[in-house]
Structures are given as structure tokens and as C-alpha cells.
Amino acid sequence: MSSKASGQLATTGKTPLLAGGNPQIVKGEGDAPVQAYIAAMPGWKRDIGHRLDALIARTVPDLRKAVKWNSPLYGVEGQGWFLGVHCFTKYVKVAFFRGAALHPVPPGASKSQDTRYLDIREGDQLDEAQLIDWVQQASRLPGERM
């Protein structure tokens, strides 16, 4: 499908970007599809993707990664997925699937009773200590089965 025909795709390099600048990556398990997604993140978002991925990998020893629904997912084997990342036009959204159970609760509300979000915009200073704490807490909770 060409980008003109769909009205929703743009292309940077080899990876098409969906509406909002989210990379269109073939779903797959493991680190390789996640790294492909990060490499295709446009502009400043790529640096955020690398920082998030490295932080999550350092924080969770038995980390499991995948790309599903054009979003990297992070989980623990046997516990499901605890976190997802998604690119939007002006920010990168970090979804904590059991975020309502975290302390403090991440700031972004969701239609889902359990999910909470952290939106990262260009120029934002990441509070890495808080993010590490949320990732540690989230990785110990039962995750989503997807």
C-alpha cells in the first residue's frame, strides 16, 4: 500500500510510519523487533526509545520483549506484559498496564480502570529514579496477557 493511497502512512527510511509517527513494525518476540521499532522512531523520539529500553532492561533481570500492535511490550515470563511504548505526533506514551496499583500513580488517566500513562514530550526532563521505581513495581504485578 502506498503512503498516498492509505492517507495514514508516511515513510522515513525503510520503515513506514503510521498516523502520528508510530513505526509500522512486524510483530515478533524478542529484542530484535523492539530494536527495529526504536531505530524507526522519528527524530528525538528515538533517543527516548533507547533510554527507556536501556532503563527497563537494567531494572528487570528476567525481561521479556516483543512488538505487538506496532508497540514494544515489556514483560516477565509467566506474568504477562507490564509496560508498552507507543509513538504519537508530539510525545512518546509509556503505558503501565497495572498503573493504578503503582505508588505514586503515573499521571495519565486511561479508559481502562487499571492502565495509567506517562507521556514524554520533546525537551522533558525524565525523572529516571521515578521511572525505575514504577518499572520495578510494575514488573512485580500480574501483567496483561496479549
Structure description:
The protein is an alpha+beta fold. The chain has one domain (3-139): Aspartate Aminotransferase, domain 1 (Alpha-Beta Complex), CATH 3.90.1150. Helices cover 29% and strands 27% of the residues. It has four helices and eight strands, in the order αβββααβββββα. The chain has helices at residues 3-6, 31-40, 44-59, 128-139; strands at residues 10-12, 15-17, 28-29, 63-68, 71-76, 80-87, 91-96, 116-121. The strands form two sheets. The chain has a six-stranded antiparallel β-sheet with strand order 3-4-5-6-7-8. A two-stranded antiparallel ribbon has the order 1-2. The protein is globular and about 40 Å long. This is Histidine kinase. It comes from Bosea vaviloviae. Residues 1-14 have a biased composition (Polar residues). Keywords: Kinase, Transferase. InterPro entries: YdhG-like.
Quick structural overview:
With 146 residues, the chain is α+β, with helices and mostly antiparallel strands.
Coarse structural class = alpha+beta
Distance between the termini: 27 Å
Oligomer: single chain
* Beta strand %: 25-35%
| Order of H and E elements | HEEEHHEEEEEH
State the helical fraction.
25-40%
CATH topology: Aspartate Aminotransferase, domain 1
For the largest beta-sheet, the strand count, sense and barrel status come to: 6 strands, antiparallel
GO molecular function, one term: kinase activity
Domain YdhG-like: 45-138
Keywords: Kinase, Transferase
Biased composition (Polar residues): 1-14
